[in-house]
Design brief:
With 248 residues, the protein is of the alpha+beta class. It has two domains: 116 residues, no CATH class; 103 residues, Chitinase A, domain 3 (Roll), CATH 3.10.50.40. Helices cover 46% and strands 17% of the residues. The strands form three sheets. The protein has a four-stranded antiparallel sheet with strand order 5-4-7-6, sandwiched between helices. The protein has a three-stranded antiparallel sheet with strand order 2-1-9. The chain has a two-stranded antiparallel ribbon with strand order 3-8. Helix 1 packs across helix 2, helix 2 packs across helix 3 and helix 4 crosses helix 8. It comes from Pseudoduganella violacea. GO terms for molecular function: peptidyl-prolyl cis-trans isomerase activity. This is peptidylprolyl isomerase.
Length: 248
């Protein structure tokens, strides 16, 4: 394929050997070549610095340990994160909800589906007592058989956009607009809320510090890789980024 890093070729055999590790990628071949180029850049830098290691992974790890330094998260940063992300540290918070789902299908024009769902939503704004009846009649979710009831749900049990809405609505509130998810269009109502409790800062401080350190390390590593790739003479491919499984 004519791919080389600082004059050192990456062979077709190496690419073929790497391919099985990238079958889940959108473009396995491109992902494999990207990985091999990055590994070559890192190993050449480790060799230039004279870093030891029993194998390639050891030498790359030694390179990161020496060259990628980040400060530990201080108390102020940890407290700021805790205040900004309080919902992540809630426990026991539940909502009891119901919905009517209109599934998007190839043979069902989206605009027609949206018009139908919109008309039913307007009916429910006028006559909310019909929710269970209309859910049984129109919902494409199995919950329609029980009036659209989803039971009690905790955070993270539904897709993000649905989850976010559930925990914003007040008890008894019917959402005034259709919610769109990958499953279709939804009419959503929260029936009841059970307030949870916030974990004390002291119990999650170490977790927060680890998370902030990991984020800082990833940013520093990304910058370091950009510098190395920018200095390297890479032939046969243009790297569109420096993210790599070997550095996650």
């Amino acid at each position: 394929m004519g791919i080389a890093v600082n004059g050192i070729d990456i062979s077709d055999r190496e690419i073929e050997a790497e391919l099985p590790h990238h079958q889940g990628a959108a473009n396995p071949l491109k992902s494999s070549v990207h990985e091999l180029v990055l590994r070559s850049v890192l190993l050449q830098e480790a060799q230039r610095l004279g870093l030891p290691g029993e194998d390639e992974d050891d030498r790359i790890e030694a390179l990161f340990d020496q060259e990628v330094k980040v400060p530990e998260a201080d108390e102020e940063a940890c407290l700021r994160y805790y205040e900004a992300q309080r919902q992540r540290f809630m426990r026991g918070e539940l909502v009891e909800a119901r919905h009517i789902m209109f599934q998007v299908a190839p043979n069902a024009p989206l605009e027609l589906l949206r018009d139908t769902a919109g008309a039913i939503l307007e009916e429910l704004k006028e006559r909310p007592e019909r929710f269970a009846e209309l859910a049984t009649q129109y919902s494409n979710c199995p919950s329609g058989a029980i009036g659209g009831s989803l039971g009690q749900l905790g955070r993270g049990q539904t897709v993000p956009e649905f989850d976010s809405l559930l925990f914003r609505l007040a008890p008894g509130e019917l959402h005034g607009r259709l919610l769109e998810t990958r499953f279709g269009l939804h009419i959503v109502q929260v029936m009841r809320r059970i307030d949870g409790y916030l974990l004390p800062y002291e119990t999650v401080r170490a977790q927060i510090a680890d998370e902030l350190s990991r984020q800082s390390w990833q940013r520093a590593l990304h910058q370091y890789l950009q510098i190395l790739v920018g200095k390297a003479q890479i032939e046969g491919i243009t790297l569109e980024g420096v993210a790599s499984p070997l550095v996650q």
